[in-house]
Amino acid sequence: MDLVVNGVEHALDLDPRTTLLDALREHLHLTGAKKGCDHGQCGACTVLLDGRRVNSCLILAISQQGVPVTTVEGLGTEREPHPVQQGFLDHDGFQCGYCTPGQICSAVGMLDEVARGWPSAVTRDGDDGPLDDAEIRERMSGNLCRCGAYANIVPAIAQAAGR
Amino acid sequence: MRTFGYAPADDVASAVSLLATAPGGTYLAGGTNLVDLMKLGVATPDVLVDINRLPLHEVTRLPGGGLRIGAGVRNSELAAHPEVRRSYPVLSQALLAGASGQLRNMATTGGNLLQRTRCRYFMDATKPCNKRAPGSGCPARTGDHRNLAVLGASEHCVATHPSDMAVALAALGATVRVAGPDGERDIPVTELHRLPGDTPQVDTVLRHGELITSVDLPELEVARVSAYRKARDRASYAFAVGSVAAAVHAEDGVVHDVRLAFGAVAHRPWRAYAAEQALLGRPATRDSFLAAADAELAAAEPLRDNAFKVTLIRNLVAATLARLTGAGR
Ligand SMILES: Cc1cc2nc3c(=O)[nH]c(=O)nc-3n(C[C@H](O)[C@H](O)[C@H](O)COP(=O)(O)OP(=O)(O)OC[C@H]3O[C@@H](n4cnc5c(N)ncnc54)[C@H](O)[C@@H]3O)c2cc1C
Ligand code: SF4
Ligand code: FES
Ligand code: FES
């Protein structure tokens, strides 16, 4: 299998049952993406697939050969964090940190969806104003945080959104 | 997970012929339901025909009016499509009410329609379940059925179809286009899913190897004033416990056209024909909305723990139609 992760091509010999999440963590040793529920219910495994946020636990690696995957490791560097990473640092957007890589990848994908004018369940027609807290909460509802760090995650993302 | 052969297809004809020769195989679309069920040992395909490369990713205008939605169009893209938002708001709202941003980016139109029930016994391979293991019994009848069916169920199965999107499609009278080993056919979306009867293991009228290629929406004036209302146990990222898709045209306080469908109450998205009939030509008031809901729900046969759904749907119908018509505010 040929996987393209954070701009690097990898040739791997994997069982067809391997999920993208397990390929990243167990075989490429990119342990940023986390395994929370393994059933699409928590968002800890969120990565970007061709720029779109997805749950890597419900994706078979074999079906994504050649498709660019971005994990939290590919978003920024320690010297130059991605604006979303900077937002989480500035606002203490985590406690234990387990959900954080998923939150960050999800927020990056979410901000791109907003830039493309995609609506959410709380968007009202003709509503092009800034991304308010209700929008952030709804759009980020696919990422659960067991520590309940939501109160700081929302402003972290708001900062990255330029608010 | 049982191991499987992986067969990516490049066009509709090769996908259909790949699966026609694999009696234990199935199609792989977004995988958000299928891969989950494979992990749980509930789905055990020996071949996966990957249909993600098929040219079914477009939303196009039909020559006579209406829209053709490719089976591979992702739920997120469909919800954001300008023509869908403008002409069929109920569909955009239903999609956005479902799952999460991540899941909607993978989930496809075809896969969403064919997702399986979330009945907990069905999803637990260690439990009896007539749908998963025909003849083994239905523990939900006396067990956990709070979120299961109140309409059209049978003694053999009380499962619900969990899709939000399908409820909007039922209200809109969409048509499912299918290609199979014996050629192509069109199926009204309201007839795609079966009632359980004594063969609950069969979800739909599709035959082995049949591939959904698109879903066609008719041009429908009434759909311009439409909405989806979903009740659930938390504010977001949860399946419906009851939902209503509604489109209505009222003039001078009288209902001239109306479409209604209910979600999370039956083995299929439930088009509420009796309620529609009861409303036509009636005043657009809260009382007639409630009476229309009652006309449909008269057939309800709730179980010990899900009678609340009947009241819930009744109230959702009245609230949604009142908002759309501006009645009784
Ligand atoms: C945590 C969680 C929460 C969710 N919440 C909601 C919710 O609130 N509301 C909601 O509506 N849904 C919800 N879902 C379900 C989600 O919408 C479905 O999993 C998704 O729509 C399935 O689409 P898919 O493309 O991933 O299908 P797949 O998983 O790829 O396929 C599902 C089935 O359809 C068959 N299939 C797929 N495409 C075709 C085709 N073109 N022709 C013939 N057969 C085909 C497959 O063989 C398989 O049997 C949730 C899912 C999860 C995991
Ligand atoms: S309701 Fe249907 S799916 Fe659920 S246990 Fe009974 S037979 Fe199985
Ligand atoms: S680990 Fe993938 S959603 Fe929880
Ligand atoms: S910071 Fe601990 S789970 Fe979110």
From TrEMBL, chain A:
Domain of life: Bacteria
Any one Gene Ontology molecular-function term assigned to this protein's record: oxidoreductase activity, acting on the aldehyde or oxo group of donors
CDD domains: fer2
PROSITE patterns the UniProt entry points to: 2FE2S_FER_1 (PS00197), 2FE2S_FER_2 (PS51085)
Transmembrane segments annotated in the record for this chain: none
Pathway: Alkaloid degradation; nicotine degradation
Domain 2Fe-2S ferredoxin-type positions: 1-75
Keywords for the protein's UniProt record, in alphabetical order: 2Fe-2S, Iron, Iron-sulfur, Metal-binding, Oxidoreductase
Protein name, UniProt field: 2Fe-2S ferredoxin-type domain-containing protein
TrEMBL record, chain B:
Key words of the record: Oxidoreductase
The keyword Oxidoreductase appears for this protein: yes
Superkingdom as given in the UniProt entry: Bacteria
InterPro entries recorded: CO_DH_flav_C, CO_DH_flav_C_dom_sf, Diverse_Substr_Oxidored, FAD-bd_PCMH, FAD-bd_PCMH-like_sf, FAD-bd_PCMH_sub1, FAD-bd_PCMH_sub2, Mopterin_DH_FAD-bd
GO molecular function, one term: oxidoreductase activity
FAD-binding PCMH-type domain span: 1-222
Keyword hit for Protein biosynthesis: no
SMART domains linked to this entry: CO_deh_flav_C
Protein name: Oxidoreductase
